[in-house]
Amino acid sequence: MTALQKVERLLPSLSAGEKAQVARWVSIDLSAYTPGIEKTPGVCGGSACIVRTRIPVWLLVEARNAGASEAHLLNSFPALRAEDLLNAWAYYRANKAEIDQEILENENI
Question: pTM of the predicted model, to two decimals?
Fold first, then answer.
């Protein structure tokens, strides 16, 4: 039996308060998920990248911090879509320390 099947089986037996707690846990767990961003070991050093590409979020953030406009980024990276930039900025807001650290690490290469 899968974990999802177990949850489905247990859900009807939970009180409203217990269901609310489960919903809270799921919400907290999902808040770390940013659609359109993936981290794959061995790809770009495991950095968060735009899906379908090897473009790391830190590179886009660094370019934006240096004054690049979204239009410039979209022209410079033909595989990018406007939605990808929105996902990158959302990931950065949620993981600022991680991305700032990657920017620092890559400045010293």
Answer: 0.71
- Nearest 5°: the CA angle 57, 60, 61 is 85
Contacts of 61 (CB under 8 A, 6+ apart): 88, 89, 92, 99, 103
Q: Which two tokens stand for residue 8?
A: 């489905």
Cα-based distances in Å from 25 to 7, 13, 20, 34, 38: 13, 18, 9, 17, 22
CATH of 37-107, one of 3.30.530.20, 1.20.272.10, 1.10.10.10, 2.60.40.1180: 1.10.10.10
- Per-residue pLDDT reduced to its tens digit, 11-28: 899 888 888 888 878 766
